[in-house]
Design goal:
262 residues; alpha+beta; five-stranded mixed sheet; 6 helices; 14 strands; 31% strand; globular; binds 2-oxoadipic acid; binds magnesium ion
Length: 262
Amino acid sequence: MTLATSVIDALAERLDTAALTGRAIDKITDDVPDMSWADAYAIQRRLRTREQARGARVVGVKAGLTSFAKMQQMGVSEPVMGYLTDRGSLGADCTVVVADLIHPRIEAEIAFRLRAPLKGPGCHIAAALAAIETVHVAAEIIDSRYRDFRFDLKSVIADNTSAARYATGSGVAMRPGMDLADLGIVMEKNGAVVATASGAAVLGHPAASLAMLADLAAVQGEEIAAGALVLTGGATEAVAVAAGDVVTIRCQQLDPITIHFI
Ligand code: OOG
Ligand code: MG
């Protein structure tokens, strides 16, 4: 089914308002159960246009549901793509105001900065690897606009894959022979280890997630730009956070990041 433009606009507005007011809504497929994948990404693009109209700059893309830990946690089985804006960007030692969000969770990710544009379809992992300029450890703070964090794939695509904030550490230059699948990742909350993973948890290799994003972007008639920041998806499951929590994410060979929730 293809939804009318007016319906796509109305659903994007509903999601936008939920994010702006911090009030959860029911998943949109409850209202429009027959919406298509194309409709879901059309709503996401409409949401992106609304944010851009408020002055937000799109700075990259994110993959979601790329690890078994995430798929199992959310009960879905396919990766998805969203966009990142400068409004969500945080540094390596940062603060997040929990009251600005509905029910934030944090997940550990590997991120890339691209030196060259990347285009699908048929993007090979070797092309993806060649496009990477720097590698970073990242924390994504996700915040589904849906009540109780319950959704299906189409609803979460429309909701820009729960994107809210993201923190990236200083990057290290990608070098030949750097084994991203082998990187160990540890997430600590209030001093206790709450999740561990390796780069291989992300579709076998984080660059496979980048190649997949190039292919997903191509379906929308888009490519990933040179200079884009790319979040490859939670390697660990997402962990709920509350004011007072401090989360540190460490990854071998990369600088750690610490997020203070207040
Ligand atoms: C969807 C967003 C998933 C990831 O890294 O897997 C995501 C969700 O779990 O709410 O960002
Ligand atoms: Mg994520």
